[in-house]
UniProtKB/TrEMBL annotation:
Family annotation (InterPro entries): AhpD-like, CMD-like
Name by which UniProt lists this protein: Carboxymuconolactone decarboxylase
Pfam families referenced in this protein's UniProt entry, alphabetically: CMD
GO terms for MF: peroxiredoxin activity
Gene3D superfamilies the record matches: AhpD-like
Domain Carboxymuconolactone decarboxylase-like: 43-124
Length: 179
């Protein structure tokens, strides 16, 4: 672990302000989870990141099921166990079955849109660009703003996976489900 979670006794007004948009439970150092407790070591960055991430989670035009499909593929490709474990549960809440989640690891999907989403993740992770063919396939199902939200979702969760992996954020005890 390169950047450990901030100990509860060090949570101060700057941390409280950084987390002001979070539920009271998530502002509690004992319940925040390892990622949030690590991020608050840099309160200004945490506040800015959370604002962006909240858009992707709660204000995005992208259907939540597709968001979770994309995030799971990012987590798999980046070998980000923390992100994977959190988003398996979130994906299930959005209707992803265990078979679909298993297929994400293989880069497989049963319908055209899901396959295009997985290809978009693969292409963005590989070359920081979506091919014309994948863009065309996505465009048959998604509007312009949804396409933009998809790209930013993939980028945000890719960056988050990089931070989690680099900082050595350990999975939370309640998310120790098997992969």
């Amino acid at each position: 672990m390169r950047v450990p979670p901030l100990p509860a006794q060090e949570w101060d007004d700057a941390v409280e302000q950084a987390l002001s948009s979070m539920s009271p439970e998530r502002r509690n150092p004992e319940r925040a989870g390892n990622l949030l407790a690590t991020m608050v070591r840099h309160p200004k960055l945490t506040r800015a990141f959370l604002r962006f991430n909240f858009h992707l989670l709660y204000g995005s035009t992208l259907p939540p099921r597709l968001r979770e499909l994309a995030v799971l593929r990012v987590a798999h490709l980046t070998e980000c166990e923390y992100e994977w474990r959190h988003h398996v549960e979130m994906g299930r809440d959005e209707g992803l079955t265990d078979d679909v989640i298993d297929a994400v690891q293989r880069g497989e999907a049963s319908d055209e849109l899901d396959r295009a989403v997985l290809r978009a993740v693969d292409e963005l992770q590989d070359s920081a660009n979506v091919s014309d063919a994948t863009w065309a396939a996505l465009s048959e199902h998604l509007e312009e703003r949804q396409l933009m939200d998809l790209v930013f979702t993939i980028g945000c969760y890719g960056a988050l996976a990089m931070a989690i992996n680099t900082f050595g954020v350990e999975p939370d005890a309640e998310n120790l489900a098997e992969r």
